Amino acid sequence: xxxxxxxxxxxxxxxxxxxxxxxxxxxxxxxxxxxxxxxxxxxxxxxxxxxxxxxxxxxxxxxxxxxxxxxxxxxxxxxxxxxxxxxxxxxxxxx
Length: 95
Prior knowledge:
The chain has four helices and no strands. The chain has helices at about 10-25, 30-55, 65-75, 80-85. The chain is elongated and about 45 Å long. The model has no long low-confidence stretch (mean pLDDT about 80). The chain has one domain (about 10-85). The protein starts with 11 loop residues before the first helix and ends in an 8-residue tail after the last helix. By secondary structure, it is mainly α.
């Protein structure tokens, strides 16, 4: 895989908070934390897109199987998991 280099500027307060997470969560550096956050956001985006497709119109919508619901629930690990859980009524499934 070819890596793409990017440069970003962030507010000092965000940088300081990132340094705390790096130390407490065991990331090597800010680059590793940033890649982790991007992966989690992309995973969340894909899950939401799939849920929206399944929700779809009444002609194309179908009820998720328990296995599908449990898989989706397990994948909701980011900070927005509570928001997504509420939106799609996943409270009763294993997280």
